[in-house]
Design brief:
By secondary structure, this protein is an all-alpha fold. The chain has one domain: Tetratricopeptide repeat domain (Serine Threonine Protein Phosphatase 5, Tetratricopeptide repeat, Alpha Horseshoe). The protein is built from four helices and no strands. The longest helix has 17 residues.
């Protein structure tokens, strides 16, 4: 099984250029609707795939505030905490 390096350009959904585009698009969507949980979740996932775990934690925390029952947001935030070595 190959591990995807977020710094390596593959042209696929995990390609850093694609992920940065997703971050940009979701940031734009959030300007129009800052409480858009779907946009926060998608941007948080893109940040995670880029290895930007602090930003992932911020977005997933906002999703959890908006949708406390969103188990995937809880999981993704937990993974980000593990990746940063933060015990919170």
């Amino acid at each position: 099984m190959d591990i995807i390096d977020p710094q390596q350009s593959t042209g696929g959904p995990h390609d850093p250029d694609h992920l940065r585009h997703v971050v940009s698009e979701m940031t734009e969507a959030l300007r129009d609707g800052p409480d858009n949980a779907a946009a926060l979740f998608r941007r948080g996932n893109a940040y995670s795939n880029l290895g930007e775990y602090e930003s992932t934690k911020e977005d997933m925390t906002r999703v959890i505030h908006l949708e406390p029952e969103n188990t995937m947001a809880h999981n993704n935030r937990g993974v980000a905490y593990l990746c940063t070595g933060d015990p919170e």
